Amino acid sequence: MSDGTIRVLLADDHPVYRDGLALLLGSVPGIEVAATAADGLEAVARAAETDPDVVVMDVSMPVLDGIEATRRIAAASPRVGIVMLTMSEEDATLFAAMRAGARGYLLKGAGQAEIVRGITAVAHGEAIFGPGMARRVADFFSGVAAAPDDSVFPQLTPREREILSLVAAGRSNAQIASALFLSPKTVRNNISNIFAKLHVADRAEAIIRARDAGLGR
């Protein structure tokens, strides 16, 4: 991006959509389509070859899915901004993409202006989410932001208090794992420890104890 032009790699397994988007972006001043890829493995290879500023990545692709391709590209070239452009509105997919290193998440119904805005934002180091996505991200992390200090349930570790706060906010184990970038097994183990330390029998009782202490609100 030395001359101000944003070089983009497009990865999507649907040729009509991929070629149409390439044509669309190629007509936008300041954006150059450096390469295209039809699957995740090809996207990783093309990213290494062309060193783009931004990768626009589909999630569901053959050979290697977009999440794993994102993880590999982000690990090899941290400066590359990756925008997921997908049909999936699932929270699990959104947070898996973020965990893998994506800095943007747009739905395929997005218009040209929104896609261009997302590419430009990510190229300049910002994060971008489509309508409704930003609110969901904020909602997920609001429980984390409200995590208590060690004066609340001092027998718990900071991580256990963080997880308990999200449990009290009504998050499922899968949602907690995505929000905190943990494995589901780690979340389960922490919740078991929380139950034991608080001497509660189940999740419902833990939620009551936590909310009585001001967590999860």
From TrEMBL:
Domain HTH luxR-type, chain residue ranges per copy: 149-214
Residue ranges annotated for the Response regulatory domain, each copy included: 7-123
Transcription regulation recorded as keyword: yes
Superkingdom assignment: Bacteria
Keywords, alphabetical: DNA-binding, Phosphoprotein, Transcription, Transcription regulation
Alphabetized PANTHER family for the sequence: TRANSCRIPTIONAL REGULATORY PROTEIN NARL-RELATED, TWO-COMPONENT RESPONSE REGULATOR
Protein name, entry field: Response regulator
